[in-house]
Design a protein that fits this description.
Layout lengths: L3 H7 L34 H29 L4 H11 L1 H14 L4 H4 L2 H22 L4 H6 L3 H6 L8 H11 L1 H18 L12 H26 L1 H4 L4 H27 L11 H27 L18 H9 L2 H9 L1 H14 L4 E4 L2 E4 L11
Helix pairs in contact: 1-11, 1-13, 2-3, 2-4, 2-14, 2-15, 3-6, 3-15, 4-6, 4-14, 6-10, 6-11, 6-13, 9-11, 10-11, 13-14, 16-17
Length: 382
């Protein structure tokens, strides 16, 4: 799906797809808003799409808010649950920006890259969650960092992460800074007139930014799948593929929809008229479809990341902090911003010291509660 994303971005263009004399082609059909004909009652397509995308966004927000509230009020495993909350928040993030893209026609293109940025946070949090799932198993530290790694860490000696883990770590986490840079680069190129989504000529930034984004996303997705394949035995009980598909399907489905829309537009099956402008078809329609799908993905994510294993009421399980502090920890993404520099082994050590300062907290491992005291026993860190 992510490989097709480059084709997706390049298929929505004018008939020759190349512009004229270095000038980006203008929209082939444009009427003032007051001259557009209604599509439903007295509502134009833009008005109808804005209302529908907003309603779907509110519906998905209600579901995800309940899921986040459940985790925040049962914050018994902060190391894992702050990553879970970050993944859950992808739905309201996408719903919000899909609504804004549909509503604000003039700046819609500037906001499209927000989807990649939101997904980069979710997939980075997902990698850290996978690491913690492995480390939550007895002997998980050695399973992740190699035989004898826990002994080396306890003795304070210098250790290094295995090559496969470092490769996976950086292939996934590069997506986060790249997404930020690409969003900024696209906004700048749009502002100065060098982007031109309607042209594939090398003189425009569109083809270059699209290529970088596709490669960055593909590396991150393949690295996550490789991690699962290499540690499948330790991750089997966590339904990792369901969790991964629940949030990655959002961007994948959006890419498919934009791709299909591009084909239909390119073959004049869908074309601008008195009901829909070129912007409505090229930018607003895929975002409207994505907004309408967010309630479904919110329910899927709610089921994929249940709160039951962390919930108060189990013996030895209780919230470590209150809901507000739990949300503050989840929304503080300094660990995601710094873990690319610190690397896996260093971040794990810092997490372990934090656990020791907190004295202990419980983990759910295959239906049993395991207690960490003073850094001994089962290690949970990402």
């Amino acid at each position: 799906m992510d490989i097709a994303y480059l084709v997706t971005r390049n298929s929505n263009h004018d008939n020759d797809g190349n512009g004229t004399d270095g000038v980006c082609p203008s929209d082939p059909y444009s009427l003032p808003a007051d001259q557009m004909k209604p599509v439903l009652g007295s509502l134009t397509f833009h008005e109808f799409a804005t209302i529908l995308s907003g309603a779907c966004g509110l519906a998905s927000l209600l579901v995800i808010s309940f899921a986040v509230f459940q985790h925040a009020t049962n914050f018994s495993n902060p190391i894992q649950q702050r990553q879970v909350i970050r993944i859950l928040m992808l739905v309201p993030w996408v719903a919000l920006f899909s609504f804004l893209i549909v509503w604000q026609e003039g700046v819609g293109e500037y906001l499209v890259e927000s989807l990649d940025f939101g997904c980069s946070i979710a997939i980075s949090a997902f990698l850290l969650l996978l690491c913690d799932f492995v480390l939550a198993n007895p002997g998980g530290f050695d399973e992740l960092f190699g035989p004898g790694a826990s002994k080396v860490a306890r003795e304070g000696e210098t250790a290094d992460s295995p090559k496969w883990l470092k490769k996976t770590w950086y292939m996934v986490l590069q997506y986060f800074p790249v997404a930020i840079i690409m969003w900024i680069a696209m906004a700048i190129s749009l502002a100065v007139g060098t982007y031109c989504g309607a042209s594939n000529k090398p003189k425009f930034a569109h083809i270059w930014l699209s290529t970088i984004q596709v490669l960055s996303t593909t590396f991150a997705v393949l690295a996550c799948l490789r991690f699962f394949k290499l540690r499948k035995a330790q991750l089997a009980s966590h339904k990792v593929l369901l969790k991964f598909a629940a949030f990655k399907g959002i961007i994948g489905l959006n890419a498919l929809q934009v791709f299909i829309t591009g084909i239909l537009v390119g073959n004049n099956v869908i074309k601008p008229d008195e009901h829909m402008t070129y912007h409505d078809i090229k930018v607003a329609l895929p975002s409207l479809l994505l907004a309408c799908e967010m309630p479904f993905f919110s329910v899927l994510l709610f089921c994929a990341f249940p709160v039951g294993v962390y919930k108060d009421g189990k013996e030895g399980v209780s919230p470590v902090v209150g809901p507000l502090m739990a949300l503050a920890q989840a929304f503080n993404i300094m660990d995601l911003m710094s873990c690319f520099v610190r690397g896996p082994i260093r971040l794990v050590r810092e997490q372990q010291r934090g656990i020791q300062r907190a004295m202990s907290f419980p983990l759910q491992v295959e239906g049993e509660v395991v207690e960490i005291l003073g850094g001994k026993g089962t290690h949970s860190a990402v």
